[in-house]
Structure formats: structure tokens, C-alpha cells
Amino acid sequence: MRFVVVTGMSGGGKSTALKMLEDVGFYCVDNLPASLIDKFVELITVPNGEITKVALGLDVRADQSFKKTTEALRNLKAKGYQFEILFMEASEPVLIKRYKETRRIHPLAVDGRVEDGVRKEQKVLQDTRKMADYVIDTSNLLTRELKAELDRIFVQNEEYNSLMVTIMSFGFKHGIPSDADLVFDVRFLPNPFYIDELKHKTGNDKEVQDYVMGFEEAESFLQKLIDMLLFLIPNYIKEGKYRLVIAIGCTGGKHRSVTLANELYNRMKDMGHYGIKLYHRDMAESSLQDLQR
User: Fold this and answer.
1) Which of 62, 72, 200, 251 is least crowded, fewest Cβ atoms below 10 Å from its Cβ?
2) Nearest CA to 16 among 156, 159, 157, 150?
């Protein structure tokens, strides 16, 4: 039997992940009190039982100290039960934004600020996060991308490393992304903005892509960047890094940066056993509100 514990930050996407696991055949139970975890596991692990895949959702709403929940999980390990922990999270600014947009009350900030509740929860869950087998950051993750990541882990059973690589395009005139780990400036390339027939198109259009990638410098830059990332990523994984944001910027974030980000994503998406996604910050149209929970 495959047994998965789904936990993480409130607003990180736990409920969405549980629904997706249910769609692929997992028997899902959410928000079970810590005192019932042991008994629940005994019942579902009966030999020759009908249930073969179980997902159990746990969060601070069930036990605000979360100490009993953590202890229960450690006791299960000590008794020899096999299970995996999926930890869902997002960056602090994104979690705060999600709560403010939906006007929901954070479970640890009933009488205070959302910011205080998020920071308190981070401390409460830090031990559980260290125990996790999989950590998924949904800060810039679309629902279909989360589904693809869960399918990769729990349906296709591919090798997994807790590293999510985000390739992000942006415009310097809108500011450097605050969560960027590596920032690259491609303003050295000729700007399609000054070509009348390309001005109102973007790096998602073939005409702009052909123009930008038609310069030898663009291809040379891309190859050097890939070589560096192929060296860096395995070492980041070795050191336990779980999130890597590669930001590629041009002036407005519409032409050169989008083209190079698209090219980098297409060439690296099948190169390793880590999650990888593409995000165009300054031309994003998709909402992440469906990952509120």
C-alpha cells in the first residue's frame, strides 16, 4: 500500500493536492486529529485490504501546536510503517497575498495580522518540513503544472529531487524579481521593440523568436547559460536546495527575455529529475487563486 501524508503551509495548496491525488485513485482523508492518526493507520494497513493508496491531510488547524502530529508521525516510523510526506508551501509574500485576496482568516492569526500567522506557522512546521520526502513550492505554480508534478511523483513514479526550477522572464523597468536566485541581463541583444512589425508582438510569437535567436550572440549566451546550470543544479540538489529561480531580464519583459526564457525551458525540461516550470512575470495572465488552499 502507498501511504502519503500531505501537509504544509496554510495557503500552500494542500487541499488542491489532496483533490488531485483523489482523482488518481487515492483514498483521501483531510484534517484528522493527531490522536486518531495511529488508529487510522492501523485500520488502513490491514493485510489484503481493498484500499491500496491513501493520502492523509494534516495541518495546524487540527492541532495548533502541531507537536502531537509530529510525534504521531515519528511513532509511526518507529513502528515500521512506511509512508511518504508531501509538504506544500509558497513564499511568504505569496501566502500573504493569497490570504488578503480571499479575505480568509489565517488559522494562527485569528486576532492578529496575516504576516504574523504565516511566520508563526513556518516555525511550527519546520520540523515536519525537514521530515518531508517531497517539497513543492506553489508560489508561481499553475494548477496544471502542480497536477503534472504530482503525476510525475505519484503516478509515473519517476525519480524525484525536491528542487523546483523556475525559469522567469521579466522587465528591468518593472524591477528585479525579489525571489530570484540567478539574474541574467539580455539587454545586450538588439531590441525587437524598435522594429515596427515586431513592436506589438512578444517572445511567444515566432517572428520575435526568429529575430532574437537569429543573432549569434543569443545562441552563444544560451549555450553558456545551459552549461553553467548543468553544473550548478546537481550541486544545489546535493546541498538540499528546493527552489531555484532563474530570472532573465530585458527592458520591458516582453521580447528578448521571453524568447530566451522559452528557449532555455525547452532545452532543459527533459534534462534532469527535477521539477521545471516557465513563468513570464510581466506578461502573466493566469491567476493562482485556485491554489489558495
Assistant:
1) 200
2) 150
What region does 83 belong to: left with phi over 0, alpha with psi -120 to 50, or beta? beta
Print pLDDT tens along the chain (293 aa).
899 999 999 999 999 999 999 999 999 999 888 889 999 998 888 877 788 999 999 988 644 568 888 999 999 999 999 999 999 999 899 999 888 887 777 888 767 788 888 988 999 999 999 899 898 989 888 888 889 889 888 988 766 666 889 999 999 999 999 889 999 999 999 999 999 999 999 999 999 999 999 999 999 999 999 999 999 999 998 887 888 999 999 999 999 999 999 999 999 988 877 888 899 999 854 333 333 33
Tell me which residue has cell 523597468. 173
Other CB atoms within a 10 A radius of the CB of residue 171 amount to: 20
Q: How far is CA 263 from CA 42, 228, 258, 269, in A?
A: 50, 15, 9, 10
User: 2-158 maps to which CATH number?
Assistant: 3.40.50.300
Against a cut of 0.85, is the pTM above it? no
Which of helix, strand or coil describes residue 3?
Answer: strand
Question: Which H or E run includes 55?
Answer: strand 53-57
Strands in 95-236 per DSSP E: 134-137, 161-171, 182-185
Q: Spell out the SS3 assignment of 82-123.
A: CCEEEEEECCHHHHHHHHHHHCCCCCCCCCCCHHHHHHHHHH
Q: Can you tell me the distance from the alpha carbon of 141 to that of 147, in angstroms, rounded to the nearest whole number?
A: 10
Provide the residue ranges of all domains of the chain, joining segments of one domain with +: 2-158, 165-291
Which set of grid coordinates corresponds to residue 206? 515566432
Q: Give the Cα separation of 99 and 121 in Å (integer).
A: 14
